[in-house]
Design goal:
With 292 residues, the chain is of the alpha+beta class. It has helices at 2-13, 70-82, 92-113, 148-154, 173-190, 203-222, 239-242, 250-258, 276-282; strands spanning 25-33, 42-46, 52-57, 60-61, 118-122, 136-141, 159-160, 232-233, 286-287. It folds into 2 domains: 16-197, OB fold (Dihydrolipoamide Acetyltransferase, E2P), CATH 2.40.50; 223-287, Photosystem II 12 kDa extrinsic protein (DNA polymerase, domain 1, Orthogonal Bundle). Strand 1 (25-33) and strand 2 form a beta hairpin.
């Protein structure tokens, strides 16, 4: 196991990624490692052998509260709109403060749930969001045998959003997504966590604003993006790199990551959200490097 783990870290450090369909490895008796940057869905863990790695949860997205650049700020605004709290307190400052406090609650809940040794199930797939910080996707099973993503979504401290794959129990990625969405619906109904602050009358308007902005961003930076002559590797590109391409938003970028590896552009036909026109526009933007 130590050799497998060290090999995977070496591959990640070299900018390569493993196949999304690779079997999961179970790392038992892991410990949570406190860091200033951790949030509810991304944090440092230490294995029983003493190796350290940053894990990004499958399927759960907690509200940002470490906002350090424009990308973080835009993501926080999108999350505020998703939960219907973008106008809470009748000022952006109060809404942002509320959202960050909810992000802090999620981080605190993760610390509490991981206070005792837990298991990480991972295929060591690259989970870089912005390309700067090395992370791997994983399922985290708490000491009582429960899935951490499910617990966070159930408590209204995360939304069902992100990258999905087959679970350690053999549930398909599609069904796992549906399970988390059902838990999110229940959390919203009972007003758990962030949902307690939702303005239900304004939520449709806020989400509509986000959809309009996403469309405008695609028109401004996507469809008119000039090809630089340097395609990106679709099998190793970070989420934010994929989102710079024509017609690729965050949801589609996550689904591209789920479907790795790809051998040619036609493989993208299988990705939900990529139609014929988008596929035509993507020609020349990708290269298809080998994955180990």
């Amino acid at each position: 196991m130590r050799f497998r783990f060290s090999l995977c870290l070496l591959l990640l450090a070299s900018g390569l990624s493993l196949k999304a369909a690779d079997p999961l490895q179970s790392l038992e008796n892991c410990r949570f490692v406190p860091t200033p940057w951790a949030d509810g869905d991304s944090f440092l863990v230490r294995t029983k052998e003493g190796e350290e790695m940053t894990v990004r949860l499958y399927g759960a997205d907690c509200i940002e509260f470490h906002v350090t650049d424009d990308t973080d700020a835009r993501r926080l605004r999108e999350q505020r709109r998703y939960f219907g709290i973008a106008e809470s307190g009748e000022s952006p400052e109060k809404s942002i403060k509320l959202a960050k406090s909810l992000g802090g609650l999620a981080a605190g809940e993760t610390v509490k749930l991981l206070a005792t040794p837990f298991t990480v199930h991972t295929a060591f797939s690259d989970a870089r969001g912005d390309g700067k910080h090395k992370r791997i996707y994983g399922f985290v099973e708490t000491s009582n045998g429960k899935d951490l993503s499910e617990q966070l979504v159930s408590k209204g401290l995360a939304r069902a959003f992100g990258v999905y794959r087959e679970t350690p129990q053999g549930t398909s990625g599609k069904d796992y997504r549906a399970q988390l969405e059902d838990l999110e619906l229940r959390a919203a109904k009972i007003g758990a966590g962030a949902w307690a602050e939702t303005d239900w009358d304004k939520l449709p308007f806020e989400r509509g604003e986000q959809r309009t902005e996403d469309t405008e961003m695609d028109l401004a930076t996507g469809a008119k993006r000039e090809f630089t002559g340097t395609p990106i590797n679709i099998n190793t590109a970070a989420r934010d790199e994929l989102m710079t391409l024509p017609g690729i938003g965050e949801v589609t970028a996550n689904r591209i990551i789920e479907g790795r590896p790809y051998k040619s552009l036609t493989d993208l036909d299988e990705v939900e959200g990529i139609g014929e026109k988008t596929l035509e526009r993507l020609g020349g933007y990708f290269k298809f490097g080998e994955t180990p």
